[in-house]
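Exercise 4. Each item below gives a protein and its sequence. For each, produce the structure-token representation.

Item: Multidrug DMT transporter permease (Aquamicrobium defluvii).
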Amino acid sequence: MSRLSGLVNRNVIVAGILLMLAGDFMFALNDAMGKWLVASFSVGQVVLVRSIGAFIVLGPMIVRQGTARLFHLDRIGLQFARVVATALDTLLFYAAVVHLPLADVMSFYMAGPIYVAALSHMFLGEKVGWRRWLAILIGFCGVLVMLKPSSAALSIESLYALIGSISFAVAIVLSRLLRGTSDTALVTWQTVGVGLCAGVMTIGEWHHGAAIDYGAMLLLGVVSGVAHLMITRALKMAPASTLAPLHYTLLLWAVVFGVIFFNDIPAPRILIGAGIVVLAGLFIFHRQNVKATVPPESVPKGVN
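Answer:
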């Protein structure tokens, strides 16, 4: 009986791993589609229609939960701050990929777990040992390698990616503080907030497109929503410490999609910096696993 139970448990974990990999692939596909669209349409327009498309997935979840729970929220100030951080994360990501290769932008976002570890110590009171602080410092060095902060090389697009990745980490930390709020409420309000900000950005920047273009924008929201659901389910089937490192496959897919669809080859400094960031992030995950377990919120949620 115990052998059968162990076999079932292993199969569930394998299923969780496969769901995590599929969810990350969907997120990478979402990001590549977004880069393709912002080449022809404004960032605000793409993100606004994308936000509307997200409700194709969110709608049934809201109906099942009941709309009343959407309006009974605790800690309104933190809720608002999280919406702002999420809006910055999403909008700056798409603003960055207008001009930068997908792999470059994704490399900056791979530093999310490093920022989360540092912010968790400062704002959540989580104890971070000297080994993880060293890994955080090394990870920051990797970010500097990618950023190349000189007057000749520093670009506004790189700053978009950097600030967006920090906003992404802030949103994760705020999600921990708001873990008593249902996932449906959190995702609904962040989608509304992002959509409103994007709507303001479309003023004077709306470009008419064909039906297939708007269909692709709506599909962005659907793909992102499905990816979120896949990863959420995966975290219920397998330990977060097992799944967290798999998220770095996003960087691999970003390189692959960038080369195939946009003929973008990552610069050597991006590859070197990304390698440093990934190794530092993996060590942080390892130490979290040694000291306790990796909270599900520490797993990056695909940027967008």
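Check: Residues 2-296 form one domain.
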